[in-house]
Amino acid sequence: MSGRHLRLFLIVGLGLAAVAAFVYRPAIDGGFIWDDNDFLTHNPLNGNLRGLWAIWSSFSAPDYWPLTYSAFWLEWRLWGDVPRGYHLVNIFLHVAAALLVAAVLRHLGARGWWLVALLFVAHPVNVESVAWISQQKTLLATALLFAATLLYVRGRSSPEAWTAQDTLALGAFSLALLAKTSVVAFPIALVGYESLRRVPRRADLLRTVPFFLASLAGGLLTIACNAAHHTGVVHDRGTAERIAGMGAAAWAYLEKALVPTDLCFVYPRWQCDPTTLGGWLPDLAWLAVLGILAPGARTWARVPLAGLGWYLIMLAPSTGLVDIYFLSYAPVADHYQYQSLPGLLALVVHPLAVAAERIAVRLAVSRATAAIAWRCATGAVALVATAVLADAARTRAAVYVDAETLWRDTLCRNPDSELAHNNLGAILRDRGDDAAALDCYREVLRIDGQSAATAVAETNLRGLTALRAFRAGRLREAAAELDALLAAPHFPHRHLAPEAVAALYDLRGKIATLAGDEATAARMAAVALAGLPGDAEAGGSVLLATARSASGSDEQALYAACADVVARYPGTFAAARAHHEAGRIARRRGETEFAAKHFQAALRIEPHAIDTRLAHAETLADLGLADAARATLEPILEAEPSHEAAARLLERLGDPVGPRQGSSKGHAERN
Q1: 417: which DSSP letter?
Q2: How would residue 109 be classed by pLDDT, with cut points 50, 70 and 90?
C-alpha cells in the first residue's frame, strides 16, 4: 500500500473511531448482561493456565470456540470483573471490522467504500453485537472473516492456482471459525465471487475446496460440542417449515437493516405454515428478486448480485435452517446479521455513488462549479445519513447499560417474551422484591410458549413460593410446593445452574429437618451433595446426619460432632442445626446458660426455625428472662397464632393468650 493510500486509510480509521466513540459512549460504563457472566465472572476456565489448556483440548466450555474463550481468558487477567475493558475491546474490533470492509470494497472497485464503512459503524442494528460483551465472539469472528476476504480477493490478481495470500486467507478463516462458527457459509460466498468474475474454471473451484474443508471441520466440532453438553432438541420444526421460514426471516432482517426502528433484543415470534401457499410467499419473493438479477450477473446486475449474494449467504445459518438455541426464543436477532450487513450497505451505496459521479461528470462539461457543488451536496447527504443512524444507535446503546434496563425495554416492545420475564424475575428476586418476581414467572406460565422457559419459570415460581412459605413458618405449604417441583418430569432442567438445583434440594432438606423427618432430610442433602460436591449446605447436612447415626445415644459423641460441623461449615443451615442439637444436649445436662447460647447462635443463622425458637424461649424462661422469652415467641405466633406449645409457654409466663392471638392474626393478615 502506497503512502497516500496509507494516509487515506488512517484518516478513514480515525473517522470510524470517532463515530464509534460517539455511538457507544452510553454503553462503555454498562455492566454485564444475561450470559456475560458465563463467559467471564462465572467461568471456571478463567481461573488458571489449566483452564486455557482445557479451552483448546476439550469441550469444557459451552461452545467449542477456543479463540473467543482464550480472548476472554486473557482479558479476565487484564480487566477482571470491570466491564469497561471488555466494552473497549468490542468497540476496537467493531472499528477494525469496518476498516477491513472498506479495504475489501476499495480493492473490488466499489464506489462509496468509505461511506459503507461509516454506515456500518453507525448502524443501530449493530448495537447488539457491540454493546453486549458476550458478542465479542461475533466481532472477533467477523473481523477475521473480512481479513480472510481481503486476502482472498487480493490473491486472485495472481495467475497462480494457489498463492501465499490464499494460505493466509485460509488461516484467517480457520481462526474465524474458532471464534464463532456462524461464518461457516463463507466458502459458498467464495464460489459466488468466482462465478461473478467469469464462468468458473476447475482451478477456480478447486481453490475454494480447502475453505469448504475448514467449514466442515468447524461444523463437526460444534456438533460434537453440543452433543457433549446434551443440548438436545432446539426446534421441533420439520424441514419444510424451516425452509419456508428462511425467506420470512431474511425479509425481517432486511427490513431492520434498511429501516432500523423498533429494534428489540427478543423479537416476537411468528408462524410460518408450509402447508399453505402463504407460508412459501417470502421464499418465492426472494427467488423472484434473484431471478430478475440473474440475467445481468456479469453486466448491470453484477454489483447488486454481489452485495445481495453476500448478504443472503452469510445470513443463511441464522434464518432457522440449522439449530441455534436463541432462535427458540425469537425468529431473528440483530446480532446475527452483523457479518452480512456490509454486503447490503454496499448494494445500496455503490449504485447511488455511481449515479452521483455520472451526474457530476455531466455537469462538469459546462458548469464545473455546479459539479463541485453536486459532490459537496452528495457528501453532505451521506454525512447526514450517518449522523441520523449514529444518533439512533447511541440511543439504542443506552438500553444495554444494565440487565434490568435491557429486559424492561424488551418487554415494552415484546410483552410476551418468556426470556425477558424469566430474567427480569431473577433480578427482582435477587433484589428481594419477591412479589414482583412471582408475577414475572406467572406471566411466563400464562404465555406457555418455549418449553425450556416454561420449565424454568415453574421452577422459579415454586421454588420462590416455597422459600417464602418456609420463611413464614408454613412448612407444610413449602414442602408441598417443593415436592410437586421435584417430582416434575422437567426437573432438574438443563438450563438450571447446579447451584440452583442444589439449593432447592437443600431447602427441602431443611423443611424435612424442621418437621422431624430426618430420613428425608438426609436423602435430600445427599442428592444435593451428589449434584454439587462442593456445596457447603449439603456437605454440612450430610455430616450432621452421619454424626447422629454414628453417635446413637452417646450424647458426648454427638456434642463433639456438632462442634465439628460448626467449625467445618460455619454459617450454614447444618451449623444452625448443630447448635440446636448442642443446645438440647446442654439443656438436658442442666447447663441452661450454655443451651441458651447455642440456641441463640442457631437463630442468628436460621431465624425461621420454629423448634429452635421455641426451645430458646423455654430456656430463657428457665433463666427467668420473661421479656426475652416473649420476644422470642412473637415470630412463632405471627406465623401460626394457634401454636399450642407457644401458647402454653405464654400462659406459663403469665400472658393472656386470647388477645395476643387476635393481635397476631391481624398482623398476619396485614402482611
Answers
A1: -
A2: confident
Element (H, E) at 636: helix 626-639
Q: Are 425 and 458 in contact (CB under 8 A)?
A: no
Sign of CA dihedral 558, 560, 564, 566: positive
pLDDT at 658 over 50: no
Q: Quote the percentage of the chain above a pLDDT of 70.
A: 94
CB 389 within 8 A of CB 123: yes
DSSP designation for 124: G
617 near 596, Cβ under 8 Å? no
Q: Tens digits of per-residue pLDDT, 188-202?
A: 999 999 888 777 788
Cell triple for 558: 454427638
**How would you label 541-572 residue by residue, b for 16+ Cβ within 10 Å and e otherwise?**
bbbbbebbeebeeebeebbebbeebbeebeeb
Q: Is the peptide bond before 492 cis (omega within 30 degrees of 0)?
A: yes
- Sign of the dihedral through C-alpha 476, 477, 478, 484: positive
Instruction: Classify the C-alpha dihedral 279-282-285-287 as positive or negative.
Output: negative
Nearest-Å Rg of the Cα atoms of the chain is 33
Non-local CB neighbours of 415 within 8 Å, separated by 6+ positions: none
Residues ≥6 apart with Cβ < 8 Å to 590:
none
- Could you identify the residue written with the cell 430463657? 620
* The three cell numbers locating residue 237: 420444526
Q: Where are the alpha helices (DSSP H) in 367-497?
A: 368-397, 403-413, 418-431, 434-447, 451-471, 475-486
pLDDT one-digit tens code per residue, 274-296: 889 888 999 999 999 999 988 88
Q: How far apart are CA 383 and CA 394, in angstroms?
A: 16
- Name the region of 276 (left: φ>0; alpha: ψ -120 to 50; beta: rest): beta
Q: How many CA atoms lie within 13 A of 371 on its CB side?
A: 13
Task: Name the amino acid, one letter, at 526.
Answer: A
- Mean per-residue pLDDT for 244-266? 94
**SS3 at position 603:** helix
Cell 457479518 sits at which residue? 339
Contact 30, 400 (CB under 8 A): yes
| pLDDT value at residue 10 | 87
What is the grid cell recorded at 48?
Answer: 488458571
Residue 473 near residue 640 (C-beta atoms within 8 A): yes
Tell me how far apart the alpha carbons of residues 76 and 386 are, in angstroms, rounded to a whole number. Answer: 34
The x, y and z cell numbers of residue 508, run together, are 427441602
pLDDT digits (tens, 9 = 90+) for 580-607: 989 999 999 999 999 999 999 999 998 8
Neighbours of 259 (CB within 10 A): 8
- Residue 184 confidence (pLDDT): 95
Q: What is the rounded distance in angstroms from the CA atom of residue 282 to the CA atom of residue 261? A: 21
CA distance linking residue 445 with residue 461, whole number of Å: 9
Select from 204, 92, 185, 194 the least CA-distant residue to 143.
Answer: 92
DSSP string, 8-74: HHHHHHHHHHHHHHHHHHHHHT----TTHHHHTTT-GGGSSHHHHHHHHHSS-SSS--HHHHHHHHH
Which residues 6+ apart lie within 8 Å of 618 measured at CB?
629, 649
* Pairwise CA distance, residues 232 & 261, whole Å: 35
User: CA nearest 649: which of 633, 635, 660?
Assistant: 633
User: Which residue is listed with cell 472497485?
Assistant: 109
Give the list of residues 6+ apart from residue 414 with CB closer than 8 angstroms, or none.
Answer: 264, 266, 267, 268, 420
